[in-house]
Amino acid sequence: MLLQASVPPPINQVPWFCVCSHCKSNAGPKGDRGDRGVPGLPGSPGRRGLTGFKGRPGFVGRQGLKGQKGDEGEKGSSGLTGVSGTKGDRGYKGDKGDQGMDGPQGDQGPRGENGMCPESCESIQGLPGLPGLPGVAGARGIPGVEGPKGPTGLKGDKGDMGMAGVPGLDGDKGDQGEQGECNCSDGADGADGMQGPTGPKGNQGDVGPQGPKGMTGEKGNLGQMGMVGQPGPCSPAIQSAFSALLTESFPKHNMPVPFQLVITNQQLHYNSEVGVYNAPVNGTYVFSFHMAVRSKVLKVGLFHNFAPVFKMTEPTNMATTSQEVVLHLNMGDMVWLQVKDDKSNGMFADDENSSSFSGYLLHPDSCDVPIGRNFFPTNVQGSYSWGDLSLG
């Protein structure tokens, strides 16, 4: 009846012998795994274990952000003067010089002795003389300045007798003489008479045609070296030029502005670390700058040995300003740019705006040996300040 009931009876109505907990039966098949229960409370911490072995080092992390620029260090003392370099190779031979000007015409020679009349009056053309041997072209001399004309020299000794002149052409036929009287009869020819006296010298005949060109003669001896000319102008080897860009906006005031991105500085006369240019020789120099201005007013000046040469102010934000000046410097003089203070320091530079400082040697005062790459100038003593501009 209990098994056929539609609703299971409560436990208190089931006989004890029908309760399965009191019956021993065979174990059924294992059921499916149930759902995971709620996590229990954490247990009490156990004893601390022994320290394990050191693990392998981890991977290197990415590079950190660039730190702020440190304070500028003090300028180091000048090093010892380097050893002089070896003497350079001998230069190539120069080009052949231009042909010199014709010399002045020589004095007329003395008159030659009277010639002898030939047996025949027919003109006979003489053989052409042998051409002289040309001299070797000397080395190219330095063109000298034409000196003053010297005094007339003493009369030279009598020259050797010249060669016989070319016989002249036949003269014009003379007039017919008077007919002589003949008082002789036919007879034998008489003996030849004595030779008559020499007649007067005839007029010089016309110059004959030019003879054929002779064979090229042998090479002549080396001529004497000419006189040394005056020194020429200064050599163009004395050179100095630089140009650099600003890399950090709003630089420090009361000190030279360093333009550290160098465009050209082949002679190394510009120190990009401190922003100072040192003059290698006495001469005339040209300096210029081009500035981008942003956020502040810009008051900038160009200084020569701690003294301001000129100052200028650009009050406009988002603007540019430029300046150029010509200076005469002595060897070792220093030139740099400087801003007045933080409030008037609008000097700016970025990827789209550049601020530059440039200079070059226009011409030196003399041909003295210029300062080379191993130049260590004597520092001009002084202190950095904005100073007063002298207009006197």
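the 2nd protein, sequnce then structure:
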Amino acid sequence: MPSSLPSNDSHTTLSSLLRAYPLFPRSRFTSLYSDFRPLRTINPDGYFANVSAWESFLRDATRHGLTSPSHDTLVLTTSTLLLGELATEEEGRPLAIGAVVTESLTTKALIPLTTFLTQPDSIYTQSWASTITNFVWSRIPIVGETAAPVDDSREGTLKTAQYVVVKNVEEAARAVVKQQAERRSGRVSDVWTIEGFAEEFMNPFGKGRFTDNDLMVILKYLERDAKEISVSGNTIKFKPPTSPRPTLITATDTTLASLKHTISITHVSLTALTTHSTALSTRAKSFLVCNNRPAALSALRTKKLVEQHIETRAASLAQLEGVLYQLEQAADNATLIRLLSEGGKALKEMNQEVGGVEKVEEVMEQLREAGEDAEEMNRVMNREGLVSEHVDEGEVEEELEELLREEEQRREREEYVKRTKEAEERARKEAEELARSLEGLEIIQNGVGEKQEGREGERERERAY
């Protein structure tokens, strides 16, 4: 459903859904509300575009529980009342809803509720196509090409009928299977009474629990079409995760489902009794505030009776839960024993395929004899010179010595190169050090020469005087 649609709440109406529906822009209202049936011949693309828009809208309106008085989300109820709720001030009532229903029946987007619940074959089998086609044509009067289809919506009326919306059912079924997978903890969690299923599994379209119609439809789909559950009487059993199909319901399954439902009912009853006890206590206090002692005593007496009832129910609940726990443990043990038994049978079959210990010993003896025969043949062929397996140890030793010499020469070359590089590096460093030393010596000598020249100049001046 498009994200721009209103959420599934009590404030959503058909008119608000229409105004927000992305496939119903104002520019298309005139075409969508007109009698566009003739377009099927003169403009098929326009015709099927309108049919597709209405089909999508009716599907989403049903998801919101807006197309039936009981707020079904999987069943569309067509009626004149629905046409009136779809009417607008500008366009009036839609005039081609009948064509939409007819086309949806043909493509199996809609399936008559009674047919859906009674047909033994899956809706995905080929036999459904002829069933739906016969249903549609049986309701079309033979009055030529302009005959009215399933309804009289061109005259402003629409026959009352109920249709299963297949896409909604498929989506709801996936949600139920997901809910079951999340709560599964063993064999006991796979079985339910129909009442327990209705209480525990929520409608994924945000409408709380499934309505009666929705419940019948989702259970039939899960059993017949999705192959996710088996149903027997009032008991439902989900298929185990490791099984491709649901298994038959046994007497033990029925007992487990009934026990679970009884425990659930007892929990609800205890909650109600506890609430009642608290209310009686509050009432007694209020009577005392008003100085109404007799009424306070009456409330307290009733409270005591309720508390006794709570104790009795709590004891019964403990016993029921204990029995359920033991049954669940026994079921797990039975499953474990069955798996061990199947594993033992499989191991025995595999051992039989091998042939037992004697067969293994026989095979190993054959392998040993075959190996000895091969060795004997090699010895004979060597003796006759056909196969030479002799290796000259002297040649091997010489080749090894040659490899060792080559390796020693390689290491010597590497060592020589390394020593040469180190010597060159040392010579370079010594040269640099010598150059720096000579440079300093030259500076010192220059300073000494200058001092001597200064003294000699002074002596010459002294002689002149």
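The longest strand covers residues 161-165. The mean pLDDT is 81.
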